[in-house]
Amino acid sequence: MFKKILIANRGEIALRIHRACKDMGIKTVAVHSTADENSMHVRLADESVCIGPAIVKDSYLNIPSIISAATIANVDAIHPGVGLLSENAEFAKIVNDHEFIFIGPKQEHIHIMGNKILAKRKAEEIGIPILPGSKGDVKTYQEAVKIAKEIGFPILIKATNGGGGRGIKKVSSIEELKQKFFIAKAESEQSFGSDSVYIEKYLTHPRHIEIQVLSDKFGNVFSLGERDCSIQRRNQKLIEECPSPILNDDERKNISEICVKAMKKLDYENIGTIEFLYQDGEFFFIEMNTRLQVEHPITEMVYGIDLVKEQISVAYGNEVSFIDKNLTVNGHSIECRINAENPESFFPSSGNVRNYHVPGGPGIRIDSGLYNGLKITNYYDGLIAKLIIHGKNREECLLRLNRALLEFVIDGIDTTIPLYQRIIKEEQFLSANYDINWLENL
Question: Pick from 226, 387, 399: which is nearest to 299 by CA?
Answer without folding.
Answer: 226
